[in-house]
């Protein structure tokens, strides 16, 4: 993580491009899924550093993570993507107005609603949703970038209340 935070220019762009290409790969083999999981485990370890998290959440990686959360057939990959998103939200010190946080919230809400009876999946998805909501609330409280991209769908509150009521 320290090496990543010190990367500049071309080195950072190369690293980011390789990560995005590997995550965005449509190959369906077991090896490809294992490679994605290993990369996601790696990202979980490096995003706990504020500088790295801030750079990654504002990069093209965040939309790719959202896309993987939507299309990945493997639920292990989806769960790990959700974890990376939650850790990014937790550890970022700054976030740009153009980061599609609302899209991530809407997608997590939809996945929780579709899989409501699966408590294991809810346990994977709810923490990330909570971290994104906390990030938005924290930034709005400080009056930092209250942009349109950060609107929270009303369905999110409904799903959260239902989760709290029904466990």
TrEMBL record:
One Gene Ontology MF term: kinase activity
Protein name: ULK4 kinase
PANTHER family to which the protein is assigned, alphabetical: SER/THR PROTEIN KINASE ULK4, SERINE_THREONINE-PROTEIN KINASE ULK4
Annotated InterPro entries: ARM-like, ARM-type_fold, ULK4
Gene name, Swiss-Prot/TrEMBL: Ulk4_0
Source species of the chain: Oreotrochilus melanogaster
Highest taxon listed in the record's lineage: Eukaryota
UniProt KW keywords: Kinase, Transferase
